[in-house]
Amino acid sequence: MNASNDAFVEFDRVQKSYDGETLVVKDLNLGIGKGEFLTMLGPSGSGKTTCLMMLAGFETATHGDIRLDGRPINSVPPHKRGIGMVFQNYALFPHMTVAENLAFPLQVRKMGKDEIETRVKRALDMVQMGDFGGRRPAQLSGGQQQRVAVARALVFDPELVLMDEPLGALDKQLREQMQFEIKHIHEQLGVTVVYVTHDQSEALTMSDRIAVFNDGRIQQLAPPPDLYERPENSFVAQFIGENNTLDATIAERDGEFVKVEFVDGSTGQALAVNCGGPGEKTRLSLRPERVTFAQPGEWGVAGKVKELIYLGDHIRVRMQVLGNNDFVVKVPNASRHATLSVGETASLSWVAEDCRALDAA
Amino acid sequence: MSLKLKMMMAGAGIAGAAVAGAAYAADELPACEGCADSMTVVSWGGAYQNSQQKAYSEPYAEMTGVEFVWDESSNEAVAKLRAMAEAGNITWDLVDVVASDAMRLCDEGLAEEIDFDSALAEAPDGTVATEDFGEMIVSDCFVPQIAYSTTFGYRTDVAEWNGETPDDICDVFDLEAFPGKRALEKRPINNMEWALLCSGVAKEDIYDTLETEEGQAQAFAKLDEIKDSVVWWSAGAETPQLLADGEIVMGSTYNGRLFALIEEQKQPVAMMWDAQVYDLDGWIVPAGLPEDRKARVMHFLKFATDTQRLADQAKYISYGPARQSSAPLVGQHAELGIDMAPHMPTNPENATNTFLYNYEWWADYRDDLDAKFQAWLLR
Amino acid sequence: MAEATANGDIAPDEHRSASGQLLAADGTPLKKSIRRSEARARLRAFLLVAPLLIFVLLSFIAPIADMLFRSVENEIVADTLPRTVEALDAWDPQTGPPPEPVYRAFYDDMLEATELKIHTRLGSRLNYEESGMSSLFRKTNERRLERFDLDQPLQPQFVDLDKDWGEVEPWAVIKTFAPRYTWGYFLQAADMRLTPGGVEMAPEFEQIYLKLFWRTILLSCTITLSCLLLGYPVAWLLSNLPARSANLLMILVLLPFWTSLLVRTSAWKVLLQEQGVINDILVYIGIVSDAGRLVMINNQTGTIIAMTHILLPFMVLPLYSVMKTIPPSYLRAAKSLGATDWTAFWRVYFPQSVPGIGAGAILVFILAIGYYITPELVGGTDGTFISNRIAFHISTSLNWGLAAALGSLLLILVLGLYWLYDRIVGIDNVKLG
């Protein structure tokens, strides 16, 4: 996870404090490869936007270095960093037309008139907004403004584009479409993108890698499947996707696995990922879709059905398991399954590899 | 006119020790039948209004219980009275104005004509009011109260003057002997006369000269000589303040203001009485008052302008009483305890060279010359 | 019901009158009923705005109408001297003094006027046009007119009373200003004169009002500009500070509103005069010599400084309210796109603050153009405004007609500038908050 030497963007032991008392970013080390789509994901106040602002140059790091293509940029003013940026509310200049908005970064770079015209047209065509050059931002829909904002951030060919929750203001359908378009543009141009969002599905869909932020630190940096399948701590497990937790005590270690003792004294096996030695507390993480109903004679824990939610392709079953009242099991809606009813007791089972023993948090 | 006035007013200087005037006993003041029991009096505010309250209204209120409301609007009294008359609602009962304003109000029909002998008290020796006031009566509507003068004060600590002090009106125009800024009033009246006087026009020819375009040009040319060194004032309080701050080395203002500056505030300032211009201040009664209010005003007016009351006012401010018979009664300042007579504009030592404001002439030429004066200021 | 409107042959029902009109539930025709209910709504709306309407009519429209009327009204001459005016109609000033019938008519008019004591008022009025008329009319009083021998020609007796009655001028003035309505005041307000021979420009050395109008506009522009230069950064700071510090700063900005005019002005005098605080400091640190103290008051500088101070809040408040709505992300976006701080400000932030500038500038300019107390106190001779002359004519010279004409010109001027502003900037582009 440490910054590698060949990274395009590099955070090296970066700290940030606004008031001199609390750190909003604590000892951040992050390397972003050229052409990568990296998403900073985390709840609000986790420090992800601050990181983005430091990279853009609107905030200065209290300590540590930020390097762009090997050069430290701490003392480079924002307008000399050559980084494109898409803002949460698009920040399209209301007094300029769409074309003027796009021409702005080219004009300040003192490009020729003809070249500006060509580039603006190309950028607008790229986001399918070719016919809208003469409009004012206020005359565009949210999605159209979004496209213009993306086009403006890209029109001067920056090697790095920052996006600060760019889809936050759009409705769900438009958001999904735009996710696809942005991803598409990224692949087409090969530009490096640092994307900030608090929407995990957005992060999972678009990113090459995701840095999960919490409490001023990166909790885990990994490609989306890893993040979902193999969370390294209970925050990530809980934050990404749906998750069941069970508190337990480690009884003994067994190679890659640990034997754990649950609150009711029963025992089970789990994959030792991020837990201590025997006698220490651990929190087990288990995805709902990995839980099955035990066959007779198989190992299992008892659970009581509290609620059934019919969702068409599957049924969501909320159960009380080992003191956890919100233990969710997704039961595929297949004909061979016996019907459950509320109040019924059933035996649940899973394979030890799917049950990850993490920090007790 | 001015000669007689001067002789008459000089009496104040001779008076010296005051004869304690007999105070009105309550039973001597005739009862006022069908009179309003409050009145609104308009004056100038400040030390002058204070002297009127001490000398006139407070004793009167004590004897009659009449309630006084004071309004400090005298400097815009003419316009306000005209507006009141147009609106048909006159809220003032007695208004203190300078003589020229009184003439205007009289011309406009806004002030009541006064029958002096019946409305005003006789002198203690039985002289009727018209004779006692004499030449001070300049308008049918105007009851004179005091004579004041517009004159110069100068700082006594100006190093550049090499120990010289200005004692001639033309020293005001002499920037070589007396360098420094001067304050003059922002209007043609007085300034034009002084300018002509110092450009060689004889005193008795001044107004005839000023009537002609050449005469006016001559006066402006004289004023041009000092224009760059002049601070123009429009409120009487400005010159004393400018003198005290050292902003100017000499300036014209009302002699009472200078008295306060010199004797009460002890500033290093002295009076230059040469070519002082006498003017009158007094009462007018607005035309068209209801009977009860008018009766009250006339009752008060008779009291407030009798010989003793006018002399009393001089205890508080260095302005000369308008009645001949009051002059011998002028005594000492009520608080400072100094003789007031040497500070009166009419004291023979002060009055060696004086002017009397020519009301008739200025009533005709004021608007015309004022426009020309303002245009000159703009140049 | 739709088919019932036209077809007369359908039998009338309870919703319809014999003539086929639609009826409301109470039997009145529907249209009438709608009209009635609408009339009620209209009446209610009218009653709701009536107090304000009456207030505006009485306190704003009526005085302005009165002012416009006064600026042309001139009934006093024809009312006081009706016969004289008629008799002068046939007289030509070129032919010398008027004939005997004019003196006869004048005698009759004056006899009535002196009895009513209104002849001096006419004298004051005509004195605005010709110096000397005031005393001429005052002299021509009841007592002296009664001594006239009516069996003898009157002209010599008038000349005997005052030789001016034998001259052409007084009669020419009466004749020129005989009409009940006159442009004379407006001409005077534009430095022109109405003479028997027609309209003339006033002599060069008497021209004053055009200069004053010009100066008023120039100084008001300067004041507006300096308010903008000083207020813009303050408003920017205000809109970017956290609420608590912004409130404190706002109180400082509003401070001029809370101190009395005289206190403020005295404070400026203490600061700015030649022996004042600023000059003392400058002399002390050696920037100016004791002999070369700066003159900062009783001139235009004084007026500009004092009025900028007083009017600054009127610039800051609209600017602030507009700037408050400009998100900081615009500046960030501009910088991220490669603009320097200055370019980002000039091309992105500034154009968006223009509505605030427009509102502030209009407010300050219109307030400045009508100010007169402050210029009177600190303006000396070259820092006074046209309003000072208006005030002078209202309160001192009592020439209300001229004051009204000057005021009307000022009103027209402001409306003209407002129109110009609308044409250039667009009045929609003004935001007060």
From TrEMBL, chain A:
Which top-level enzyme class is recorded in the Swiss-Prot or TrEMBL entry?
Answer: translocase
**Matching PROSITE patterns, A to Z?**
ABC_TRANSPORTER_1, ABC_TRANSPORTER_2
Keyword annotations from UniProtKB, A to Z: ATP-binding, Cell membrane, Membrane, Nucleotide-binding, Translocase, Transport
Residues in ABC transporter domain copies: 9-240
Which reactions is this enzyme annotated as catalysing? ATP + H2O + polyamine-[polyamine-binding protein]Side 1 = ADP + phosphate + polyamineSide 2 + [polyamine-binding protein]Side 1
Under the heading InterPro entries, the entry gives: AAA+_ATPase, ABC_SmlMolc_Importer, ABC_transporter-like_ATP-bd, ABC_transporter-like_CS, Mo/tungstate-bd_C_term_dom, P-loop_NTPase, PotA-like, Transp-assoc_OB_typ2
Supply the EC number(s). 7.6.2.11
Please give the subunit comment from the record. Answer: The complex is composed of two ATP-binding proteins (PotA), two transmembrane proteins (PotB and PotC) and a solute-binding protein (PotD).
- Function as written in the Swiss-Prot or TrEMBL entry: Part of the ABC transporter complex PotABCD involved in spermidine/putrescine import. Responsible for energy coupling to the transport system.
Family to which the UniProt record says this protein belongs: Belongs to the ABC transporter superfamily. Spermidine/putrescine importer (TC 3.A.1.11.1) family.
What name has this protein been given in UniProt? Spermidine/putrescine import ATP-binding protein PotA
Source organism: Albimonas pacifica
* Top-level taxonomy: Bacteria, Pseudomonadati, Pseudomonadota, Alphaproteobacteria, Rhodobacterales
Automatic annotation (TrEMBL), chain B:
Does the UniProt entry include the keyword Signal? yes
Task: Return the Gene3D superfamilies for the record.
Answer: Periplasmic binding protein-like II (3.40.190.10)
Q: Name the keywords, alphabetized.
A: Signal
**Any Pfam family matching the protein:** SBP_bac_8
Signal sequence interval, chain numbering? 1-25
Does the keyword field hold Signal? yes
Protein name per UniProt? Putative spermidine/putrescine transport system substrate-binding protein
**Species of provenance:** Albimonas pacifica
From TrEMBL, chain C:
InterPro entries named among the record's database cross-references:
MetI-like (IPR000515), MetI-like_sf (IPR035906)
Q: Where is this region: Disordered?
A: 1-22
Query: Where does the chain cross the membrane?
Result: 45-65, 212-238, 245-263, 304-322, 354-373, 400-421
Record keywords, A-Z: Cell membrane, Membrane, Transmembrane, Transmembrane helix, Transport
Q: Does the keyword Transmembrane apply?
A: yes
For this record, an example GO cellular component is:
plasma membrane
Instruction: Identify the Pfam families for this entry.
Output: BPD_transp_1
Q: Where in the cell is it found?
A: Cell membrane
Q: Keyword Acetylation on this protein?
A: no
Q: How does the entry describe its membrane topology?
A: Multi-pass membrane protein
- GO BP term (any one): transmembrane transport
Report the family membership: Belongs to the binding-protein-dependent transport system permease family. CysTW subfamily.
> What is the protein's given name?
Putative spermidine/putrescine transport system permease protein
